[in-house]
Write a structure and sequence with these properties.
Blueprint (H helix, E strand, L loop, with lengths): L32 H85 L6 H31 L2 H7 L15 H19 L3 H28 L12 H14 L13 H7 L3 H16 L1
């Protein structure tokens, strides 16, 4: 009889009995050919999927990077386009205003010189009438602008068909609504021309009225187009307190929250007061001032 072999502590010695065969070693589950094939296939699929996901992530990252670059390019192109549009409109505004003011000064000087060259006294009465009608023409144009803006441009279908371009995003330096500026310039030119050709007090009154309409149009262009809608830079007039209130009042007109009020421009704050919206105007003024100071 064989003796029990010595084994290490904690280990179990195999039982050797005469005529007894030890059990066959246990086969691992993973040793099965079918299981091995399944495992290898799964690993390959997992590796392939991982590589595919990595490629997709890389492609997505490249697409996002490309999209970001394209958006930056679009923003840069749009910014340059806006600068060109503002420069174009600014040139048109400054050139037209300079020309009109130059012609007005030359015409006034010529009218006074004509009287003096014909041995007449200095035409004080004619000059005073011209200045008074010039001021009256500017005030009258504010009243006219309020009326025509409401009843002809907003409440009239034909007028609104053109004016709505001013209440929509503008494409390019000009808009269809600009045609109204040309329409208002026609009577001013006619009055100035008739007054210039008639060298008497009546001529001076006509000339003054046309000049007042013209000066109102220039002021309207710089405040409305430049200061309110920022179609071109206007410089230091943006810091004038009275004009800042005019700006906020006109922004309320574009909000469509107050029934279109105010329809006037320079007297817009008074129109809001009469309509009962003075408190809203003051709140918006305070909010605008606070945001600018931050």
């Amino acid at each position: 009889m064989a003796s029990m072999p010595v084994c290490r502590r904690g280990a179990r010695a195999p039982l050797l009995v005469l005529g007894h065969q030890p059990p066959p070693p246990r086969r691992s589950l993973w040793a099965s050919p079918s299981i091995s094939r399944w495992a290898s296939t799964s690993v390959m699929k997992s590796t392939s999927a991982h590589c595919g996901n990595k490629q997709k992530m890389t492609a997505t990252g490249k697409e996002n990077s490309t999209t970001s670059v394209e958006l930056d390019d679009q923003r840069r192109v749009r910014r340059q386009q806006r600068l060109r549009e503002r420069a174009t409109y600014q040139f048109a505004a400054v050139a037209a205003s300079t020309l009109v003011i130059f012609l007005a000064i030359c015409a006034t000087y010529y009218r006074i010189s004509w009287h003096l060259d014909h041995g007449e006294d200095f035409p004080y009465e004619e000059l005073c009438g011209t200045l008074l009608l010039c001021l009256g023409g500017m005030v009258g144009m504010e009243m006219y602008a309020r009326w025509v803006h409401r009843y002809m441009w907003h409440e009239n279908d034909l007028g609104w068909a053109i004016h709505k371009s001013h209440h929509e995003p503008r494409l390019g330096p000009f808009e269809a609504n600009d045609i109204y500026a040309l329409m208002n310039a026609a009577p001013a030119i006619g009055l100035c021309w008739y007054g210039f050709m008639r060298p008497d007090v009546i001529g001076g009154l006509f000339f003054g009225t046309g000049l007042g309409i013209t000066l109102f149009g220039i002021s309207y262009m710089f405040v409305h187009d430049g200061l309110v809608h920022r179609r071109f830079p206007v410089g230091p007039i943006a810091k004038v307190p009275m004009l800042r209130k005019v700006v906020v009042a006109h922004q309320m007109h574009h909000s469509d929250k107050y029934g279109g009020v105010p329809f006037g421009m320079f007297l817009g704050p008074l129109e809001l007061k009469d309509a009962g919206f003075e408190e809203d105007l003051e709140k918006l003024m305070a909010a605008t001032t606070s945001s600018e100071n931050e």
